[in-house]
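Contributing new records

If you add data, match the layout below exactly. Sequence lines come first and carry their own label; structure lines follow with theirs. Keep one chain per record. Anything else will be rejected by the validation script.
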Amino acid sequence: GGGGAGGEGGGVDSVVSAGDDGAAGGEVSAAIFEMRYRLMSGKCYQNETMFGIVMAGHPKAEVEPETDVCRVGTAVRIDEFQSLDDGRILTMNRGVQRFRVLAYLAENEKPYIQAWVQFFNDDPPKDPEAVAVREREVFANLQDVLALSNKVYKKNLRLSDAVRDTAPLDEGAPRTMEQAEAFSFAVAAVLDVGRELQQSILQTRDTEARLRAMLQVLAAAKRYLAAEATIRDAFGGKEDGAGKE
């Protein structure tokens, strides 16, 4: 399909209704067994084109009339493609660009759904400094959560490449709004959020609002992990029930 970012109309090879959609910059895996979508995924992988994923079954999102399919989704590119002996195809897909469905093609020669879509980015912020402050707060809290998680679960996990590549590492360096938007989605991609929030942060065109939502998720995670760490420290780091007679 065609169409560029920033509000141009274009076609995507398919719009797939799914339980979850991927954030821009994030990854979403898929196990494909229907023949029409096996054909679609093979074509997209071979031609290095994108297909679209939209969420279904969301009670509060903006949806198509008389359906439960969201109008806002993510165009993804297939990074990994594996054909299995049982006929299924496993793919790892990377979110590239958000879109809004303008119209589904009524006369469609393909066996899968096609649509005209409008790609979009966040709106210019009213207060760029507020966005910069939220970015730094999110990054600091994300590092705190990672450190606590590694302590509690005795792991040595690192920030994802997408987060490190877009994070405000140098506080004095100038930041573009495109970097801030990419960072907000990179953080959203690594956090475990519910479907309602997932769709909300995808639909919003307000970078600061998305960062504020991430701050709330991180604050809750930090409280939980801090309590877990305190409990484990109190028992000398032993697992529940360890050391009991």
